[in-house]
Design brief:
Blueprint lengths: L2 E7 L2 H15 L5 E7 L6 H10 L7 E2 L7 H19 L3 E5 L3 H12 L4 E4 L11 H12 L2 E4 L2 H9 L7 E3 L3 H14 L3 H4 L7 E4 L4 H4 L2 H14 L4 E5 L2 H9 L10 E3 L4 H9 L3 E4 L3 H9 L3 E3 L8 H4 L3 E3 L4 H12 L16 H13 L6
Parallel strand pairs: 1-2, 1-4, 2-3, 4-5, 5-6, 6-7, 8-9, 8-11, 9-10, 11-12, 12-13
Helix pairs in contact: 1-7, 1-16, 3-4, 4-5, 7-12, 10-15
């Protein structure tokens, strides 16, 4: 009888982390059944479909459709919807990835049912409890059974929190697995020529964190700085739905007129843009990792990062989202000064393969020979 594994996705960044796992476990299809469950935490049918296509990922076998709501409402709805799935499918292991509400909700549900939980991207810490994602990371790691870690800081954090060496596995980064999988498609994509962009002649901007977009004065300040940046580089700005709503609500349209605004992009399109950009300005977590692998300078508009290796080894600079520090960083880049980074260890496109082998041999005691 095959072992049954469930992997939970709740938002688009989760797709990139789970798709390589699905491919890796497909190699052992005679021994394990890998099922993808989508909570519907963030879901746009049209955009999700093209993400699945870009990553050659199957449609989720189970879709819970919980939708949006407050942190508490969403977490509760996910738990209520996920519990019957676990009772019906009775998996031997549940994978949760990253740090969204689906991660902690499904981990908590599984653990209460006595189902072991594996956390992919475990141990990352910003040490900023004002971020909902940090609460989700800490809480998930407090109850999970197995920890698959992307960088050494995660290992140290888990050790400090009392996890045993037998539970912790430094395996690399499944986000980079997906990046390498999609890279050939991105290199030949037409989006740059369609937009009339010259290599290194433009900057990619993303902005979505509540601390940056929910406060009208903070959002106005950042958009004004992006308008200044547009005087010497084309600013390509795929606008997150949350940010688009905030711009409209606060009446800030005048500040985005100098920018090249785009709707949310599919994964390959966005990767194609980043590949030939001069640099990236973002408040995202995963983009810090992607730019580090690609060697593209990245200004992260935050005071903390849960991915310190992107600053220590990679091309990422933490820049407080304030006029002085951000202008100074942009002037440094305008002078042509660039941070020369390197790819962190084990970010080689084989993280999911390592996870699959560890799960079969050590967690499920199934031989892979």
């Amino acid at each position: 009888m095959r072992a049954r594994l469930l992997s939970v996705v709740g938002a688009r960044p989760n797709y990139m982390k789970v798709a390589p796992l699905h491919r890796a476990f497909a190699r052992y299809a005679e021994r394990v059944e890998h099922i993808i469950v989508h909570t519907g935490q963030h879901y746009d049918a049209e955009l999700s479909d093209v993400f699945f296509a870009d990553l050659e990922m199957p449609e989720p076998a189970v879709f819970l459709g919980v939708g949006s709501g407050t942190q508490a409402q969403q977490t509760a709805r996910i738990m209520l919807a996920f519990e019957p799935v676990c009772l019906q499918l009775r998996p031997q292991l549940v994978f949760v990835v990253g740090d969204v509400n689906s991660t902690i909700a499904c981990a908590l549900t599984a653990v209460k049912l006595g189902i072991p939980v594996a956390h992919v991207e475990a141990g990352l810490r910003s040490f900023d409890r004002r971020m909902p994602e940090e609460i989700n990371r800490v809480a998930t790691d407090a109850i999970a059974d197995y920890f698959f870690v992307t960088e050494p800081s995660g290992v140290e954090n888990l050790r400090r929190e009392g996890k045993s060496e037998e539970q912790i596995f430094l395996v690399g980064n499944t986000m980079i697995d997906s990046l390498l999988f999609a890279l050939p498609k991105a290199r030949c994509h037409s989006i740059r020529s369609d937009l009339g962009l010259q290599p290194r002649g433009y900057v990619v901007v993303t902005l979505h964190r509540p601390s940056n977009v929910d406060n009208p004065e903070q959002l106005r300040l950042l958009l004004q700085l992006f308008s200044e940046l547009a005087q010497w580089r084309t600013v390509v700005f795929p606008v997150h739905p949350r940010t688009r709503q905030a711009i409209d609500r606060f009446g800030l349209e005048q500040y985005v007129r100098p920018l090249c605004l785009l709707p949310p992009l599919r994964y390959v399109e966005f990767l194609a843009l980043v590949l030939e950009s001069d640099f990236v300005v973002t408040d995202s977590g995963g983009i810090q990792e992607e730019t580090t692998y690609l060697g593209i300078p990245c200004l992260t508009l935050r005071t903390t990062t849960e991915r310190p290796i992107t600053c220590q080894l990679g091309t990422n600079w933490l820049v407080p989202p304030e006029p002085g520090p951000l202008r100074a960083a942009l002037q440094t880049l305008q002078r042509g000064e660039r941070k020369q980074g390197q790819v962190p260890p084990l970010w080689d496109g084989h993280a999911a393969e390592r996870i699959a082998q560890i799960v079969l041999e050590r967690c499920l005691r199934i031989s892979v020979e």
